[in-house]
What we know:
The protein is built from eleven helices and eleven strands. It has 348 residues and is α+β, with helices and mostly antiparallel strands. Strands 1, 2, 3, 4, 5, 6, 9, 10 and 11 form a nine-stranded mixed β-sheet that branches. Strands 7-8 form a two-stranded antiparallel sheet. The longest helix is centred in the middle third of the chain and has 22 residues, at 168-189. It is globular, with a radius of gyration of 20 Å. The relative contact order is 0.17. Bound molecules: zinc ion (2 copies). One zinc ion is lined by residues 204, 206-207, 209, 230, 232-233, 235.
Amino acid sequence: xxxxxxxxxxxxxxxxxxxxxxxxxxxxxxxxxxxxxxxxxxxxxxxxxxxxxxxxxxxxxxxxxxxxxxxxxxxxxxxxxxxxxxxxxxxxxxxxxxxxxxxxxxxxxxxxxxxxxxxxxxxxxxxxxxxxxxxxxxxxxxxxxxxxxxxxxxxxxxxxxxxxxxxxxxxxxxxxxxxxxxxxxxxxxxxxxxxxxxxxxxxxxxxxxxxxxxxxxxxxxxxxxxxxxxxxxxxxxxxxxxxxxxxxxxxxxxxxxxxxxxxxxxxxxxxxxxxxxxxxxxxxxxxxxxxxxxxxxxxxxxxxxxxxxxxxxxxxxxxxxxxxxxxxxxxxxxxxxxxxxxxxxxxx
Length: 348
Ligand SMILES: [Zn+2]
Ligand SMILES: [Zn+2]
């Protein structure tokens, strides 16, 4: 097997010369495109990929998220039953420089379980009768509201003890839809500076979650600018380049991508990973992926992260830890792992 080398391809100085000044810090997603674009990208990446079945399943899940998020009847029901933050609450957090909708202090609303119910129904419709995923869905349906909440809280707080790893993508999918809706409804109520920059630039200014990856977005006069993509509410926030997204150090930052010695991109499976690279920091030994729209306009922060596990494996061999988290695939993240076999509490 041809093992690609991980080498630097841009100096920090080269990147700094293309950096731009003040940016709109926080950008909420377009609800009508967010999960649809993710589904399309996942299907595109799945073609011929060694993890094809997994990526197709993720695409089906993203499709379910899209339909549930854009279901007008469900949206009305969720709007009626979901508590939103008061303007005083938002102002207090803005003043303190902390994210207002952080699951550590914003209570999990029972209405999230309704998103899960609808997502399970959508996915079930697409699965063949013999699919092993149906057993996981059936198991999830037997959980009491309290047991489901325990699963959700574990996932939100990164405490993997007792979390059913097979069921966690469904829980994550529902929580993402719930938090996307929560952020959008809050921004609609208070459109002026709803989620300003927070003191800790490495977490989401809306919900305080870690990024899944960062994206170099097109659309500026001087090329691209870098945003981090929230793993939970999918908000993107501006982060200058050549700055560690884990410890905020600007020293010893390096960039890596999959290349051969002759400098050409290699094929891993048949996926061209030219649009995805890694930013590593030798101060804290963490890394985060960067998906680059200038190299591939169709890159998507969650989909491209899922499809480039090879990069994670190669950089882990060099001693770097994953700085971000992908709620759809918790293995390989630096979230706490108990080492216990996963099980559903009270279901056996
Ligand atoms: Zn967020
Ligand atoms: Zn660092």
